[in-house]
Design a protein that fits this description.
It is a single chain. The protein is of the alpha+beta class and 330 residues long. The chain folds into three domains: 6-94, Cathepsin D, subunit A, domain 1; 142-275, Cathepsin D, subunit A, domain 1 (Beta Barrel); 292-330. It has helices at 178-184, 225-228, 257-262, 280-329; strands at 6-9, 15-18, 39-49, 54-66, 69-82, 91-94, 108-111, 122-125, 138-141, 147-154, 158-167, 174-175, 191-193, 196-200, 212-216, 219-223, 229-232, 235-243, 252-255, 263-268, 273-278. Strands 1-6-2-5-4-3 form a six-stranded mixed β-sheet, with no helix packed on it. Strands 12-19-11-10-15-16 form a six-stranded mixed β-sheet. It has a five-stranded antiparallel β-sheet with strand order 8-7-20-21-9. Strand 20 and strand 21 form a beta hairpin. The model is unreliable at 288-330 (pLDDT under 50). Residues 1-277 form the Peptidase A1 domain. The chain crosses the membrane at residues 294-315. Belongs to the peptidase A1 family. It comes from Paramecium tetraurelia.
Length: 330
């Protein structure tokens, strides 16, 4: 029996794992020898092209398990990869609605850890974990590729209208069409546009960056700078987690982990919809900020009262001094 670390990818539908012959597939350099009865190879070749790489292999049928639930599923046994060499993961399990992995229980829910959160990232199969949010879930309709209609995207002004958005657990960035990338150059000025955008942040203060607002299925979802900006205390640079490589489709936005870090995401295959709700860590950080602002306000009020009292004492002293001088003159 093999054990693998895989990416559960809502942006694709196929599953692939490395063969023993694929020396560049992963850092672990582990792979499958496909032998009957647990694995049945075919003579049919298959390939997958991703946004940043590609792979080639043969189709096989194997037995798989998550949480001791075993079932057969077709997968690609990969012999060669390009652009994905030395990955820290072993393979990918595609979770688009067209995927037919019978060992997967739906719905599937994703919780992405945030930098200041003590909770670990997690995936829930067959439901969702109510301890990871405490607001009402908002549902948006999607197609079988988890693509949602998007009326507009706004960031200090409208960037684009009449678009589509894919919520993609397999992407670590936000990926936009060419016309939106062009408009973003007016937002992120004085930045270097490499594969991702690098901006000068001498104090690591990201509060001046704008909030992204996206209408999905006529409902607004916002993304504050702390979710799409990465800072490093060791260097005065902010990394904008937006790819400078445009989407393959001129109307498609890909909302990867920056979006899913804020929103607990529920992929409901049975009803062709996605549930979105602010994760508990975002709600907790908001409460901390409110509490911090509250105590800052109290502190400023106490200082102000103290200054007012000091001024009153000075005024009273000067007034008594004046009255004493006046009575002596009389």
């Amino acid at each position: 029996m093999y054990s693998f670390k895989v990416i559960f990818d809502t942006g694709s539908s196929q599953m692939w794992l490395p063969s023993i012959n694929c020396q560049r597939c992963n850092k672990n350099q582990i792979g499958i020898v496909c032998e009957q009865p647990t694995c049945i190879p075919s003579q049919e070749q298959a390939s997958i092209t991703y946004h940043v790489g590609a792979l080639i292999g043969v189709k096989c049928l194997g037995m798989f398990s998550i949480n001791e639930h075993f079932d057969e599923s077709q997968f690609i046994l990969v012999d060669e990869v390009t652009g994905m060499e030395g990955a820290i993961y072993d393979g990918v399990v595609g979770l688009q609605q067209s995927s037919n992995h019978s060992f997967i229980e739906w719905p599937i829910s994703f919780y992405y850890n945030f930098e200041n959160s003590n909770r670990q990232s997690s995936i829930t199969f067959g439901g969702y974990d109510e301890s990871l949010f405490n607001k009402e879930i908002r549902y948006v309709k999607s197609d079988e590729q988890w693509i949602i209609s998007s009326e507009k995207i706004d960031m200090n002004g409208i960037l684009g209208v009449d678009l589509y958005a894919m919520i993609d657990s397999g992407s670590s960035l936000l990926i936009f069409p060419k016309n939106i990338l062009v408009n973003l150059q007016n937002v992120f000025t004085n930045c270097v546009w490499t594969e991702i955008i690098k901006c000068s942040c001498p104090t690591n203060d990201i509060s001046e960056f704008p909030t992204i607002k996206i209408l999905l299925d006529s409902q607004e979802f916002s993304l504050e700078p702390q979710f799409y900006i990465h800072t490093n205390n060791h260097e005065p640079i902010c990394y904008v987690l937006i790819s400078n490589i445009r989407s393959h489709n001129d109307q498609l936005m890909i909302l990867g982990s920056p979006f899913m870090r804020k929103y607990y995401t529920i992929f409901d295959k049975q009803n062709s919809q996605i549930g979105l709700v602010e994760s508990i860590h975002y709600q907790e950080s908001n409460q901390k900020n409110l509490l911090k602002n509250f105590f800052t306000l109290i502190g400023c009020t106490i200082i102000a009262i103290g200054i007012i009292k000091i001024v009153n004492y000075v005024m009273e002293y000067e007034l008594r001094k004046y009255n004493n001088q006046k009575s002596l003159m009389v």
